[in-house]
Amino acid sequence: MIQPNWRELVDFDKLAAWMDGLGLESGPVLDAVPLAGGTQNILLRFKRGGRTFVLRRPPSHPRLDGNFTNRREARVLGALANTDVPHPRLIAACDTPDVLGGAFYLMESIDGFNASMALPQPFSESADLRRQMGFSIIDALLSLGRVDHIAVGLGDFGKLDGFLERQTLRWRAQLESYREYDGWPGPQSLKHVDEIGKWLSENRPKSFQPGVLHGDYHLSNVLYRFDVPQIAAIVDWELATIGDPLVDLGWIMATWPDPEGRGTSDTRVKPWDGFPVIAELIEYYGKHATRDVSNIAWYGVLGCYKLGLILEGTFARACAGKAPVETGERLHKSCVGLLERAAGMIDGR
Question: Do residues 277 and 259 lie in contact, with contact meaning Cβ atoms separated by under 8 Å?
Answer without folding.
Answer: yes
